[in-house]
C-alpha cells in the first residue's frame, strides 16, 4: 500500500461517492454523490442528523465498506474496490478506530486490548508489550494496565480504546462519537487528548459528533444532509 | 500467526475456565472411556491367557455334543465310564485320563448349608487339572472301586461349611450321602470365565454314579498328553476311537468334541478381543457426541462474541486469521479435553484393574490415537463455527447488541 500518483496527493479524496443499499423500488440511497478532500494532519468533525449519510461515509472512509460508485483515493491510490482482505490490511496498516461504545474486549486487560492490533501486525511479544505500555502512557493510564474494562470508568475505557487506535501509529484516526457516552468533564478530557494527538503527532482525525461543542475542537466540520455534503465550516480548533 | 492463534485460544480458554471445561467434558469422557475400555480389555485378554496357560497346555477336554453356535452345544448321548477306560487303555501319548460326572448339590454340615458343585471322578482328576492337595490324602483304590462316601473339598466349601474348624475327618451331608472329608485341595481362585473353582466337593466317580445319578453316564473326560505327543495325532486317535464306540457312520459328523486348551485359549482371547472392540466402539460414540458439544458451544460462542469479532475485523484481522483463531481455539479445547481424558483414563484404569484383578496394560498406541482423534474432532466440529465467524460483516458485527 504505497502512495503513488501525484507528488503531493491529499491523504483522502472522495469523488462523487454514492452508496445504495438494496435495489429496485426498495433501493435506499444513503449517499448521493459526495466529494470530500482531507489533507494530512487535519482534524475534521463530521456532523448531521441521523440518516444523513455520515455513518456510511465513515464506514467507507474506514474501509469497512465500499462505495457503490465513485472513487476513494487514499494517499493517491484507489482503494474503493479492494477485496475484504485487502481492506483489512489497509485498516491494519493505516487506520485506527475509536467508537462511541468503546468496543474493548471484555474480560481482557487494558494492555492486552491495546496489544491486539500489534498481534495482527505480527509484532514480537516484547515489542508489543513495550509499545502498548507507551500508548497507555500517552493516554494517561499508567498503572491501569492489568485492569479489565469492567474495572475502568467510561472515560478510562475510551482512553484505552484511543491507546489501541494509536498504538499502530496510524495515518488516520476515525472516531465515531467518541464522547457520546461520557459526561461533559470526561468529554473535554477526551477531546483534549485527541487534539493533543492531532497536534503533537500529526495524526489526522476524522470524528463524527452530534454536539457542536465537540465540533469546536476540529479544524473544520463537514455537515451532511440527506446523503449530500451540505456545508463545510471552519472550527475554532484551526491553527 | 499460528502461534498468535494459540496464544489467543489459551487466553480465551483461561478467561472462561468453567465453560471451557464443561464444553470439553464430552471429549474428556469419550477419550477416557475409549482408553479405559481398551486398557481393561487388553488386561482381561492377558489374564485369560495366563489362566489358561496355568491349566496346562497339554490338557484335552472331551465332551459330548458339537458346537453349533457361539455358545450353543448340540445335544448328544453322554459318555460312559467305559469310554474313558477305552481312551486310557488304547490311546498312546496320554499321561492321565479322568472321567467326570458332576452335579449341583447342597452340602450340609450341622446347621450350615451351601450349594456347591459336586464332581465325581478319580484321582487322575487331580493330575489332569494339576491340582495338588493342601492337606489329607487322595482316594484309596478301595474307596474308588466300592464307591465309598468320602470327599475332598475346595477352599470355598471349607470356609462356608467349617469356618475355622479343621474339616478333615468331619462329615458333609450331600443329599442322602454322609461324606467323610479326607483331604483339601489347594485354592485355585477364579477361572478364566469368572467361576469360583474352589467351590467344589470331589467324590469318587462310583459314589456319584451309584448314589446320585444312578447311571454309568459321565459328563466329560479330561486327558493330559505327554509333552512329546502331537496334539493333532492324539485328538485324531481319540476321535476315531470314539466314533467307533459310538457307532457313527462315516458320512455322519462327530457328536462329541475333543478340545485342546490352545483352542479354548484362542476362543476366549477372540471373545475378549471382540468385546474390547465393541466396548471401544460404543465408547467412541461418546467422542462423536463430545465433538457435537464442542460445535454447539463454539456456535454459541461465535454469536456471543460477534462484537469481539467485529472489533478484530475492524482493527485489521483478515478472514483467514479470524477463522484460524476459532479453529485453533476449538482444537486446543478438544486437545486439552483429550489430555484430561487420558490422565483420567490412566488413573481409573489403574484403579479398575486392581478392583477387577486384571493386569494393567498401558497401550501407547491407543493413547496417541485418542489424543489425535480428539484434536481432529476439534478441527472438524470447529470448522463451521469458525467459517461463520470469519464471514461476519464488520459493520454488522460492531453494531451487534
Give a description of the structure.
- The complex is a heterodimer of chains A (239) and B (401).
- With 239 residues, chain A is an alpha/beta fold.
- Chain A has one domain (41-66, 83-234): P-loop containing nucleotide triphosphate hydrolases (Rossmann fold, 3-Layer(aba) Sandwich), CATH 3.40.50.
- Chain A has seven helices and ten strands.
- In chain A, the strands form two sheets. Chain A has a six-stranded mixed β-sheet with strand order 6-7-8-3-9-10, with helices on both faces. In chain A, strands 2-1-4-5 form a four-stranded antiparallel β-sheet, covered by helices on one side.
- In chain A, a hairpin with a 6-residue loop joins strand 1 (12-21) and strand 2 (28-38).
- In chain A, helix 3 runs parallel beside helix 5, helix 4 crosses helix 5 and helix 5 (154-166) runs parallel beside helix 6.
- The longest helix of chain A has 18 residues, at 184-201.
- The radius of gyration of chain A is 18 Å and the shape is globular.
- The mean pLDDT of chain A is 90.
- Chain B is of the alpha+beta class and 401 residues long.
- Chain B folds into two domains: 2-50 and 277-399, no CATH class; 77-254, no CATH class.
- Helix content of chain B is 57%, strand content 19%.
- Chain B has 13 helices and 14 strands.
- Chain B has helices at residues 2-15, 17-55, 81-90, 124-128, 141-146, 155-162, 205-213, 231-245, 261-304, 306-314, 319-355, 364-390, 394-399, and strands spanning 59-64, 67-69, 72-73, 79-80, 94-109, 112-121, 133-136, 150-153, 171-174, 177-185, 200-204, 217-218, 220-225, 256-260.
- In chain B, the strands form three sheets. Chain B has a six-stranded mixed barrel with strand order 5-6-11-8-10-9.
- In chain B, helix 1 crosses helix 11, helix 2 packs parallel to helix 11 and helix 2 (17-55) packs antiparallel against helix 12.
- The radius of gyration of chain B is 32 Å and the shape is elongated.
- Chain A binds chain B through residues 59, 62, 64-65, 84-85, 88-89, 91-93, 95-97, 99, 103-108, 112, 116-117, 119-122, 164, and chain B through 1, 4, 7-8, 11, 15-16, 307-308, 310-321, 394-395, 398.
